[in-house]
Automatic annotation (TrEMBL):
EC annotation from Swiss-Prot or TrEMBL: 2.7.8.11
Catalyzed reaction equations: a CDP-1,2-diacyl-sn-glycerol + myo-inositol = a 1,2-diacyl-sn-glycero-3-phospho-(1D-myo-inositol) + CMP + H(+)
Cofactor(s) essential for the protein: Mg(2+); Mn(2+)
Key words, A-Z: Lipid biosynthesis, Lipid metabolism, Magnesium, Membrane, Metal-binding, Phospholipid biosynthesis, Phospholipid metabolism, Transferase, Transmembrane, Transmembrane helix
One GO biological process term: phosphatidylinositol biosynthetic process
Region Disordered, residue ranges: 1-33
Domain of life: Eukaryota
Broad enzyme group: transferase
Bilayer-spanning residue ranges: 49-72, 134-159, 184-203, 209-231
Similarity comment text for this entry: Belongs to the CDP-alcohol phosphatidyltransferase class-I family.
Identification of the protein by name: CDP-diacylglycerol--inositol 3-phosphatidyltransferase
GO cellular component terms, A-Z: Golgi apparatus; membrane
Species the sequence originates in: Toxoplasma gondii TgCATBr9
Pfam families: CDP-OH_P_transf
Length: 258
């Protein structure tokens, strides 16, 4: 992987190097300096980025998700819940750490998106396993989530946007509000996660064997968060449509040149 990445870096034009450098915190790399580095030196530089603190947080989140999946399989409901919640809480830490430590990276942004999607996919899959009659509905939710985010993220990269959160409010007002208002985004994400988490916990043998008040509380949360779940699902759909329109515009008018 290191050799492939290094050879790709060597083939980049100065303009592309400058753009990538700007996205990585202004650390542009000159072609001449690359040619003077050995394979080991190039790999050491790449490894340094892979080991940025925010990226390590991403790896920890993946480990926690794997632990959560294993815990659910073994009916350790409390361990499942704690592992998943900690993983989600760390999602709010990695971005702040990247900015504070000056370790913003393109690979880190990609990793963050991947882990976020893995998190929700885990909830979809587990819910489908305990509610088989609604498995198709969970698949649709997964399809909109994964597909919408991927197309939107890919389109943002193609058009050269600084962030996938940058968009024209006149084109998509709902997404503009979603991405520009932190309270709206936070509420939608928490409500979305809370809906699927509580729905899953209701099927847990541990919860079912507990006091009826616990199941009642979880059911109330499911009902309360359902509008937020619907809104977040709508944004997933709109992201895919918006991204598709941006890609079609590139087909018609041409993608921005590097």
């Amino acid at each position: 992987m290191a050799g492939t990445s290094a050879s790709r870096e060597d083939s980049q034009s100065p303009a592309v190097r400058q753009r990538v450098g700007s996205a990585s915190g202004g650390k542009s790399v000159q072609a001449a300096s690359d040619s003077d580095l050995s394979h080991e030196q190039k790999w050491a530089r790449e490894l340094k980025v892979f080991l940025y603190v925010p990226n390590i947080i991403g790896y920890v989140r993946i480990a926690l998700l794997l632990a959560a999946a294993f815990a659910w399989r073994e009916a350790y409901t409390s361990l499942f819940f704690v592992s998943y919640v900690i993983s989600q809480c760390l999602d709010a830490v990695d971005g702040a750490a990247a900015r504070r430590l000056g370790q913003v990276s393109i690979v880190g942004a990609c990793l963050d998106q991947v882990v976020d999607r893995l998190s929700t996919c885990l909830l979809y899959v587990l819910n489908a396993s305990v509610y088989p009659d609604f498995a198709f509905a969970f698949f649709i939710a997964l399809f909109l989530d994964m597909g919408g985010h991927w197309v939107h993220f890919f389109a943002a990269a193609v058009v050269g946007a600084k962030s996938h959160k940058t968009m024209d409010p006149e084109v998509n007002a709902i997404l503009s509000v979603y991405y520009r208002s932190r309270p709206v985004m936070f509420s939608a994400i928490v409500g979305f996660e809370g809906f699927f988490m509580c729905l899953l916990l209701l099927a847990s043998p541990v919860v079912q064997a507990s006091a009826a008040s616990l199941s009642s509380a979880l059911l109330v949360i499911v009902y309360v968060t359902s509008p937020l779940m619907i809104f977040k699902t709508l944004t997933n759909l709109l992201q895919g449509l918006y991204g598709a329109r941006r890609l079609v515009a590139c087909d018609i008018f041409g993608a921005p040149s590097s």
